[in-house]
Automatic annotation (TrEMBL):
It comes from the Bacteria. GO terms for molecular function: ATP binding; phosphorelay sensor kinase activity; protein dimerization activity. It is an enzyme of class 2 (transferase). This is histidine kinase. The keyword GTP-binding does not apply. It catalyses: ATP + protein L-histidine = ADP + protein N-phospho-L-histidine. Residues 363-399 form a coiled coil. The chain crosses the membrane at residues 406-428. Residues 464-656 form the Histidine kinase domain. Keywords: ATP-binding, Coiled coil, Kinase, Membrane, Nucleotide-binding, Phosphoprotein, Signal, Transferase, Transmembrane, Transmembrane helix, Two-component regulatory system.
Length: 656
């Protein structure tokens, strides 16, 4: 199931970019469009036919697609609606080639279509907004795409309740929700699509893809029986059309179903059928996904040489490998595969390529973060200057008001002497209290500054030590281990030299322990993937047969400043360590939630507990560090403990 989720992002990207509303029975559809172009039909009809043919061929034959697009352009002759359509299909042509250009052309189409008030214009505008969201996905993320569909596309299509365009949009939104593990919401939108498409378009391509999306959604949840029902419905629709290009999508869904059912041997001939269709219709990315699944199945069947050959072909073909994250995954898989085959030298080569690419990607991420920080700093500087100017203006206004008040006050001074004395006395007492409060605030700020300096110093030292251990000593020991393994395979007998292999095993465990220590000092998953992923990894690390940790994360913002994420991570690390080492607990519930400026942590265990005043008596360095970190984040901590277990509630202020 984990392998299915690895490929889901690739499949989603392909579906968002390439899925077109083309009838399942493609040949009559294409013939009718080409007959219109050859006939004496009006120029408007010929232009529309040319644009639709360009859209059909855009991923099959780019030259033919471009030719039809330009033919349609010559037939516009000042027709505003045709001009809008040309910009839309021009964007479609560029969608998989140059997203920036495609975005420009979609916006041109939207601007023109918004001035035309009819059903066809509204539905085409809905499609243009959806496709524009796709062009911005890599830059703005999936929330922007979802917002565009819900706020722009669907309201336009909803004017015509039973349109197939509305069913298509519901299906695409369901695909995005499936990728983001919102399986129930995905089912809801697929259901909305079914109500429209089954009742009004029972043999449509839109309904076919809805069935496939339903099947895939259930596959990712390991619900094979539910997936099979919708897969059978899709098969019933596509069976009469063996020449249709969408057969490749059907066989890919069949492949996922077989993997879900762990029917690896049965999946191989299905993959070959899918590859046949992808080659026939130049669906290169989908073909490489079939090959990647083929590699995975061959590896599970221990047909290592075949698996290696398939994966190396995927790397050579480059459709998948153009994406650096995909290439990194392929390098890692080849390293592991060579190690399983006993080719340790080859494993080391691929591991080095993986590490080099991983370091490069991490460097780019750091640069992006620096640019974001610079932008925020520049914006803050502008706001500060504006605030300073406003403060100076207010100060001048106050000075003018004071002068006017002084003139009026001279005339009333005799009458207000007694009142002034009383007022001054009250002010004196008030200032005394204010000064005392300021002194306390200064002391608190000094304590927080000291705490911050200590914590920052600790984290910098942890990072330095972790880097030295992982990159320096860890790399050296890993190299020694591989060299020993290679040498022993050529010079020693496993039966006669058991002591040497025992020592080699100890060296391997030492390398693993050293990497564990390095990760504990500075968790890489926190820096690379954020707080929620790092906490999930931490809980999985502590999980064992006699210890169960239930981790629940609610609305944790990935954009929290890294120093706040790191302090929260250390707080929870200390809480888990206390529960496991001192409370002798067998079950722990950890819940983390974020609400605007507050971050809430609750941890409950069924351990032996401790005395209610133990936290005041103890001199534990861990508890002291825990309290310092909570104070640093201006938080509060409550501890409730008895013989049934311990509950710790922490509320942190993350607004500063």
């Amino acid at each position: 199931m984990k392998r299915l989720l690895i490929l889901l992002s690739i499949l989603l990207s392909f579906a968002l970019q390439s899925q077109q509303i083309i009838p399942l029975n493609e040949k009559p559809y294409l013939d009718s469009l080409q007959n219109i172009i050859k006939s004496t039909a009006p120029k408007t009809s010929k232009a529309n036919a040319s644009f639709l043919l360009s859209n059909y061929y855009r991923n099959i034959d780019s030259l033919v697609s471009k030719q039809y697009l330009e033919n349609g352009k010559t037939l516009i002759h000042g027709d505003t609606f045709l001009l809008a359509k040309y910009e839309y299909y021009r964007a479609q042509y560029h969608l998989d080639r140059n997203k920036e250009n495609a975005a420009i052309y979609y916006q041109r189409a939207i601007k023109t279509l918004s001035k035309i008030k009819n059903e066809e214009s509204d539905l085409l505008q809905a499609s243009a907004w959806y496709s524009y969201g796709v062009t911005q996905k890599d830059k703005e993320g999936y929330p922007f795409l979802v917002k565009t569909i819900l706020e722009k596309s669907i309201p336009l299509a909803k004017k015509y309740e039973n349109s197939r365009n509305l069913g298509f949009l519901y299906t695409q939104l369901a695909v995005i929700l499936t990728y983001n593990a919102e399986f129930k919401k995905s089912e809801d939108y697929n259901d909305k699509a079914l109500k429209i498409l089954q009742n009004h378009y029972p043999n449509s391509a839109e309904l076919f893809f809805t069935y496939l999306n339903f099947a895939n959604n259930f596959c990712y949840q390991a619900k094979g029986d539910e997936a099979k029902k919708f897969l059978d419905k899709a098969e019933k629709l596509i069976t009469p059309y063996p020449e249709s290009s969408v057969n490749a999508f059907y066989y890919y869904a069949r492949t996922l179903y077989c993997i879900t059912r762990q029917k690896n041997a049965e999946a191989l001939p299905i993959i070959e059928k899918g590859i046949f269709y992808t080659k026939k219709f130049n669906q290169n990315l989908l073909a490489q996904m079939f090959y990647f699944n083929k590699y995975d199945i061959l590896r599970k069947l221990k047909r290592y040489e075949e698996a290696k050959e398939v994966l190396e072909d995927v790397l050579t073909e480059k459709s998948l490998a153009l994406d650096l994250a995909n290439r990194k995954t392929i390098y890692k898989q080849l390293s592991a595969l060579n190690e399983e085959m006993g080719n340790l030298k080859g494993a080391l080569v691929w591991e080095q390529k993986y590490s080099k690419l991983n370091d490069s990607l991490n460097t780019e991420n750091v640069k992006l973060e620096i640019n974001k920080i610079e932008s925020k700093f520049n914006a803050a500087e502008k706001e500060r200057k504006i605030a300073t100017l406003n403060a100076e203006k207010n100060q001048k206004d106050l000075e003018v008001n004071k002068k006017n008040s002084y003139l009026w006050g001279l005339s009333l001074v005799l009458l207000l002497v007694i009142s002034l004395l009383i007022f001054l006395f009250i002010i004196f007492r008030k200032n005394k209290k204010i000064n005392a409060q300021k002194i306390n605030e200064i002391k608190q700020k000094e304590e927080l500054s000291l705490t911050k300096a200590i914590l920052d110093g600790e984290e910098r030292e942890r990072e330095r030590i972790a880097r030295d251990l992982h990159d320096g000593l860890g790399g050296m020991l890993a190299g020694v281990k591989i060299n020993f393994s290679t040498w022993s395979a050529n010079h020693l007998d496993p039966e006669k030299d058991k002591e040497f292999y025992k020592i080699l095993g100890q060296l391997d465990r030492s390398v693993s322990e050293l990497r564990h220590v390095a990760r504990n000092l500075m968790p890489e998953s926190l820096l690379n993937f954020g707080l929620e992923t790092a906490l999930n990894d931490l809980c999985e690390f502590y999980n064992r047969k006699d210890m169960e940790i239930d981790f629940q994360a609610i609305r944790i913002d990935k954009k929290l400043p890294i120093n706040i994420q790191l302090n929260i991570y250390r707080i929870i690390q200390e809480l888990l360590a206390n529960a496991i080492k001192h409370a002798a607990a067998s079950s722990i519930l950890l819940q983390c939630s974020q609400s605007e400026k507050n971050f809430l942590i609750t941890i409950e265990d069924n351990g032996k507990g401790f005395e209610s005043n133990a936290e005041q008596k103890t001199k534990s360095m861990g508890l002291r560090n825990l309290k310092n970190r909570v104070d640093y984040l201006k938080g509060n901590m409550e501890i409730h403990s008895d013989s049934q277990g311990t509950t710790v509630n922490i509320e942190l202020n993350i607004n500063g």
